[in-house]
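Hi,

I'm pasting everything inline rather than attaching a file, because the server keeps stripping attachments. The sequence lines come first, and each chain or strand is labelled.
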Amino acid sequence: MSATHIEPVSNVVWHDTTVTRLMREQLNGHRAAAVWFTGLSGSGKSTIGHLVEEQLHRHGCRTYTLDGDNVRHGLCSDLGFSERDRTENIRRIAEMVQLFLDAGIITLTAFISPLRMHRELVQRLVGPDRFVEIHCACPLEVCEQRDVKGLYRRARAGEIREFTGISAPYEPPVAPDLVLHTHRVPIEECAEQVVGRLRERGVLECGRQRA
Amino acid sequence: MSATHIEPVSNVVWHDTTVTRLMREQLNGHRAAAVWFTGLSGSGKSTIGHLVEEQLHRHGCRTYTLDGDNVRHGLCSDLGFSERDRTENIRRIAEMVQLFLDAGIITLTAFISPLRMHRELVQRLVGPDRFVEIHCACPLEVCEQRDVKGLYRRARAGEIREFTGISAPYEPPVAPDLVLHTHRVPIEECAEQVVGRLRERGVLECGRQRA
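And the predicted assembly:
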């Protein structure tokens, strides 16, 4: 019988077999959560985030860090810094975090995210039980003194408009999971505090026990 | 000594410790790759994709499936179906796949993706060595007969404009990794073929051996 004579498979079952988040969490041995770092430019979000990620990875956790480097140049490369674009930027990040959580990943983010309503938007979308808010609370003077990327100098010179802390507001979290005083606590200790908080929140518990 | 008197940590090293894709692949025991299903609506992309994902998950692989359900309603909810919006839709999907690959995940996608240039865009971005193209080659008549979502009926009635296969073109891949004849091969067998192809492409090899 030639291929052209084979009848179409008529009894195909067209349901979608789906691997769920719970199944992925069980495979990973930990829960999926968004670890949201917020704070001024230069407050240590990215540095501490990557330190935390390294520790989690060493413990066998599945992790990923989203920050300006891998988001602003890619997924959000069409967006500027107008209020509308900033909102759309956060919306896309929130949706992406949501997908990463669905994939079972501990997802760390390092964005200034100065507005409370933006962070609340993310929290609503991913769910409060999966949202861990970390405030890198470093005084503006110290951030400006560090000025790792030279952005504060440019902002003071008027070359960057609406720069958080200089010409745009930063709204600190009302009830963050953790406040890191990165100007007087060594970053290694800050990272330890974050991992400890994740443990307290049950993120590092094995999915099997919660199933 | 009270906290307020503690001097700022001045010798902080502000480098970013980074967990790399290779480190994640080594932890996972397999490589990251994009498994891109393309084909008409109703050709079996999503069903076979989920079957493949289930098999990979059972073997301990880290996987995720992106499709219309979790992308169009979320990340791309602001986009319509104009040519410009379709291009932006694919661009965002490509960038997102890129992030998932960076996270070490075998990322399956189920989008009609009718245009060759769009699929080539994804391939260029993620890199040809990480792009596995699967063509769900099911004749239009069979897809239309199945009409799982009732879309063909609506397209024939003129209720949906520019519907692939009816009023918009589908450009089949020139050199796909695999052609699945989903109208005469049972879906379980199709899924087996995909897994076999991933094995041939070295995706399922342990990262440790390739490090």
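The two ends of chain B are 49 Å apart (CA to CA).

If the labels don't parse on your end, tell me and I'll reformat.
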